[in-house]
Design a protein that fits this description.
Length: 395
């Protein structure tokens, strides 16, 4: 509301200034004032200096952003085997963009100043220069080709999973729906049972084909546990709209498309406990907790409860704007040591068992309780009503 009011005030101010300049122009009528609409040397000079001012603004903004937010992009401390490859690609791209942007902006604004309009000066007619065109076409072409080739090499390296890798990997399904994630583990056979949105019914909220032999040992989890040092193949499905499974710390992202299964796989290299010990993460966590402490002071002063302190956890996020609660579509990811992971896997209830238990419970609660009839009470009620009827008749 305050923002709207400020906007209205700014708009009204702008209209007022515009009207004032019109009145000022009217007062100048008849006087010897240069009110021509054609730019003269002085106008061009002013515009030339404004170009320099704008260049300064771009550079200052860049320095300010790098200084203040330079530590926000994830460029180190990745937690997957292919992570450094992605980080390297990202760093090279950023450095290239930074250099090209700095040089080209300086040239653009300098030439705009140098060749500003001057009275009596005509622009030179210049048809073309093959040598120049060759230089400014081939340099970007070579740089971009290098970047694309390195990108393709990285992409193939990350996405290619051979038969050997596949045999040694754990298969986990990530199921996306507005607005939550659910994981399905493939169990001892390491094969996910068939699933389809048409099978969704009651407790079977993942739409698993319960008659499929491969589905018998599948189990669902609302927290994603993966072991360090072992390849995990994620199969993504979506129940409703387009989502995107985004695991920023593992430098992994893949769209979840309704009606098809997509895939991404990686090897986690850092456990949650190890990640919490990294200096950069400790610094980040401390910073978040400082902010939370400040916010908590305000909340407590207003009689509300204070915020809980933050501890680092890997996250699976949704990276496609999929609806109103998209921002909160996340799942905690825990990277365990292989021993801890084995312990976590124990005694998990399979989806088939869960559906059976839910059905049995539903049946129990649906059966109507047999009403107990107090025969003595009924008799007295009947007696009373006949007595009332008889007195009525007598009247
Ligand atoms: Cu989503």
């Amino acid at each position: 509301m305050t923002t709207l009011l400020i906007l209205i005030v700014v708009l009204l101010l702008a209209i007022a200034i515009w009207q004032l300049t019109k009145i000022f122009d009217l007062t100048q009528v008849g006087e010897n004032v240069n009110d021509t609409q054609i730019a003269d040397d002085n106008d061009n000079k002013v515009n030339g200096y404004i170009m320099f001012a704008f260049l300064g603004f771009i550079y200052l903004t860049t320095i300010y952003c790098v200084w203040n937010y330079g530590n926000l992009p994830l460029l180190k401390d990745s937690a997957s085997e292919h992570g450094p490859l992605v980080d390297n690609l990202m760093s090279i791209s950023l450095v290239l963009i930074f250099i090209v942007q700095t040089v080209t902006q300086a040239l653009l604004h300098y030439f705009a100043f140098k060749y500003k309009g001057k009275k009596g000066q005509k622009a030179m007619y210049f048809a073309d220069n093959n040598k120049l065109e060759l230089v400014w076409s081939s340099i970007p072409a070579i740089v971009l080709a290098g970047l694309i080739l390195y990108g393709l090499y990285s992409w193939n390296n990350i996405m290619y999973v051979d038969k050997e890798d596949e045999q040694d990997a754990i298969v986990i399904e990530l199921y996306a729906q507005q607005f939550k994630w659910e994981a399905r583990y493939s169990g001892a056979d390491n094969v996910l049972g068939k699933a389809n949105v048409r099978y969704i019914e009651g407790a079977n909220n993942l739409g698993v084909d319960l008659s499929d032999p491969n589905a018998q040992d599948d189990f669902a989890a609302s927290e994603l546990h993966i072991p360090k040092g072992k390849r995990v193949i994620f199969k993504m499905r979506s129940q409703d709209v387009l989502h995107s499974a985004y695991l920023p710390h593992f430098r992994a992202q893949m769209n979840c498309v309704p009606g098809m299964v997509t895939q991404f796989s990686f090897i986690p290299t850092v456990t949650t406990a190890e990640m919490r010990e990294k200096p950069a993460i400790i610094e980040k966590v401390n910073h978040i907790n400082e902010l939370r402490a400040k916010k908590s002071e305000q909340l407590v002063a207003n009689g509300q409860t204070a915020l809980d302190p933050y501890t680092f956890d890997f996250l699976l996020l949704c990276n496609k704007i999929c609806g109103a609660s998209h921002y909160n579509m996340q799942m905690k990811v825990v990277v365990d040591t292989p021993e801890d992971f084995k312990a976590w896997l124990k005694d998990k209830q399979t989806i088939v068992q869960a559906v059976k238990t839910a059905a049995a419970e539903a049946e129990k609660s649906e059966k109507p309780a047999t009403p107990t009839i107090d025969t003595a009470k009924v008799k007295t009620v009947v007696k009373d009503s006949t007595a009332v009827a008889q007195t009525e008749v007598k009247k």
